[in-house]
Structure formats: structure tokens, C-alpha cells
Write a structure and sequence with these properties.
Helix content is 57%, strand content 11%. With 210 residues, it is α/β, with parallel strands linked by helices. The chain folds into 2 domains: 77 residues, Methyltransferase, Methionine Synthase (B12-binding Domains), Chain A, domain 1; 120 residues, Cobalamin-binding domain (Rossmann fold, 3-Layer(aba) Sandwich). Bound molecules: CO-5-methoxybenzimidazolylcobamide (B1M).
Length: 210
């Protein structure tokens, strides 16, 4: 993307109503939902991140962009799914304690649901004990953990350790994701898998169940 598109610009301005209209227009013009999501919305959030890092955008503005992103994703949702209806398995998912980022995790949830998984979404800032309770209650095949901050990466490790110690790890695979993590970190903390984006998280979940 050489020039900033209207959709990206509007996302960065946090104008959710205009963004909804623009995304609807793009869909009506025949553009693929996945392309709008990747090339304009996720790319836009990356630009927001750059401006946040350089001090050109402040938290309230970033929150407005985040809200607009959520609204745009809701518009794209019906166009992104694979349309499978039978349950492919159960996944408990959440963003770890101390971390409030949920846009990426919500995209993962959306892809998993559209691939036919039952998803129990625990939200953000989730304590290890809450994950353990949810595993006991829902008996999922997979636990998904998301973290967006280098400062919350240690909480991924603590959460995996707490789950191991609680005795609920048998028959459970742990999948992690989020911008600062990678496969090496997943191996280091004893997770079963790492996915770099929502699409691969869904593919990996299917592979795990299979
Ligand atoms: Co924050 N933030 N933020 N932020 N924020 C980042 C992450 C940052 C890189 C921005 C920057 O400085 N350049 C930086 C982290 C630096 C670091 O740790 N190295 C940062 C910071 C510093 C902070 C605060 C500390 C700022 C402050 O208060 N001084 C603070 C922390 C709050 C907290 O969590 N305790 C903070 C706050 C916030 C907001 C609340 C304002 C807002 C979040 C709103 C929300 O989520 N509802 C926010 C936002 C929006 C961002 C950026 C701009 C965008 C994140 C995003 O949504 N990206 C972000 C910069 C960036 O990422 N470029 C930034 C789009 C999303 C689709 O991508 O989340 O990576 P992502 O998800 C991807 C993959 O990572 C993967 O799939 C997703 C879809 O493809 N994935 C998984 C994610 N989870 C997965 C789980 C899986 C598998 C794949 O399996 C289970």
C-alpha cells in the first residue's frame, strides 16, 4: 500500500460511522473482505501503532481507532467465514492478565467460530485461575492465549505453568499468539503451538483437533 487509502485514513481518524459506510461500499463494489481486512484495516492499526510509539497519537485517539476497527470487523464478519456449522471442537480463549489488547484476539475468535468451533471467550486481563476454572467447566480441546505487550509475555509463561500445576493439561493443547511472541517463545514456555495471525490460528486449531 503506497498511499494511505480512505478506509485506512478514516480508521486512523477513529470515525466509526464513516468507516462502516466505506467498508460497506467496498464490499458492494465487489472487493474481498479478507483483502479489506488485511491491506487496509490491519495495516491501518499498524500505522496507529507507529504513531502511538512516536508520540503522534495518544491513548484516547488510539481507542477511537480501536473502536472503529471493531465496528468495521463486525461489517466484514459475515463475509469472512467459511460457513461451517457443525461443532469442530471447543476452545477457551483470552488475553492474559495485565493486557487489555483484544482486537487481534477477537479476530482469532471470529475465524475460529466461522470454522465451526465453539469458542468460550474470557475477554482481556484474564487471571490464570480464571483460565483454569473455564477449562474445568468447558473441557476444551484447545486453550488460546493472547498477549500484545512484551511486559505481559511472562504472564503467558505463568499461565501455562499454573495450568500444568493444576492438573488440567492432559488432553489440552495450548496455542499462543500476539505480536511480540513467536514459535521459539512458544517452545520455551511449553505451549503446543504458535500462530502469527487469525487465519493460521484457525488452521492450526483444525490440525490439532484432527
Ligand atoms: Co497498545 N501497545 N498499549 N493499546 N497498542 C501496542 C501493542 C504497541 C506495539 C504500540 C507501540 O508502542 N508501538 C505497544 C507495545 C510495545 C511492547 O510491548 N513492545 C503498546 C503499548 C506500549 C500500550 C500501553 C502500555 C500504552 C500506555 O498506556 N502507555 C497500553 C497497555 C495497556 C494494557 O494492555 N495494560 C496500551 C493500550 C492500548 C489501547 C487500550 C489504547 C489499545 C487497545 C484497544 C483494544 O485492543 N481494544 C491499544 C492498541 C490499539 C495498540 C496497537 C496500536 C494496535 C493493536 C492491534 O489491535 N493491532 C498496537 C500497535 C500494533 O500492534 N501495531 C499497540 C491489530 C490486530 C489485528 O493485530 O493484535 O497483533 P494483533 O493480532 C494479530 C496477531 O498478533 C495474531 O492474530 C491477530 C490477527 O491477525 N494474534 C493471535 C493475536 N492474538 C492471538 C492469539 C492466537 C493466535 C494469534 O492464538 C490464541
Amino acid at each position: 500500500m503506497s498511499e494511505i487509502s480512505k478506509i485506512t485514513q478514516t480508521l486512523m481518524e477513529g470515525d466509526d460511522q464513516t468507516l462502516i459506510a466505506l467498508v460497506n461500499e467496498a464490499l458492494a463494489a465487489g472487493r474481498a473482505a479478507q483483502e479489506i481486512l488485511n491491506d487496509e484495516l490491519i495495516a491501518g492499526m499498524d500505522l496507529v501503532g507507529e504513531k502511538m510509539g512516536s508520540g503522534e497519537m495518544f491513548i484516547p485517539e488510539v481507542l477511537m481507532s480501536a473502536r472503529a476497527m471493531g465496528a468495521a470487523v463486525e461489517v466484514l464478519k459475515p463475509h469472512l467465514g467459511e460457513g461451517e456449522s457443525s461443532s469442530a471442537g471447543t476452545i477457551v480463549i483470552g488475553t492474559v492478565k495485565g493486557d487489555l489488547h483484544d482486537i487481534g484476539k477477537n479476530l482469532v475468535v471470529m475465524m475460529l467460530e466461522s470454522a465451526g468451533f465453539e469458542v468460550v471467550d474470557l475477554g482481556v486481563d484474564v487471571e490464570p485461575e480464571i483460565f483454569i476454572e473455564a477449562i474445568k467447566k468447558n473441557q476444551p480441546e484447545i486453550l488460546g492465549l493472547s498477549a500484545l505487550l512484551t511486559t505481559t509475555m511472562p504472564m503467558l509463561k505463568k499461565t501455562v505453568e499454573a495450568i500444568d500445576a493444576s492438573g488440567v493439561r492432559e488432553n489440552l493443547k495450548i496455542l499462543i499468539g500476539g505480536a511480540p511472541v513467536n514459535q521459539a517463545f512458544a517452545d520455551e514456555i511449553g505451549a503446543d503451538g504458535y500462530a502469527p495471525d487469525a487465519g493460521s490460528a484457525s488452521k492450526m486449531a483444525k490440525a490439532i483437533i484432527a
